[in-house]
Design brief:
With 64 residues, this protein is mainly alpha-helical. The chain is 44% helix and 0% strand. It has helices at residues 2-8, 27-31, 46-61. The longest helix has 16 residues, at 46-61.
């Protein structure tokens, strides 16, 4: 998450986080994104991903 935040901190970023029990985004949804990232090799609960991404952007932007 920290590397993703460092790469994107200077941009106006919208994070789209999937919370699926299985599967992935529809291809139409993925086409809307400039980049797609995975922060872990196995599925994580949505709240964990949101927390880690917020924390990473807070660190990079020094807003803690």
């Amino acid at each position: 998450p920290l590397e993703i935040a460092k790469e994107n901190a200077h941009l106006n970023v919208a994070l789209i986080i999937g919370g699926f029990p299985h599967g992935d985004f529809f291809s139409e949804t993925l086409k809307l994104a400039d980049e797609a990232y995975s922060i872990y090799r196995k599925p994580l609960e949505t709240w964990v991903v949101v927390s880690r991404m917020f924390s990473a952007f807070e660190q990079v932007l020094d807003i803690c």
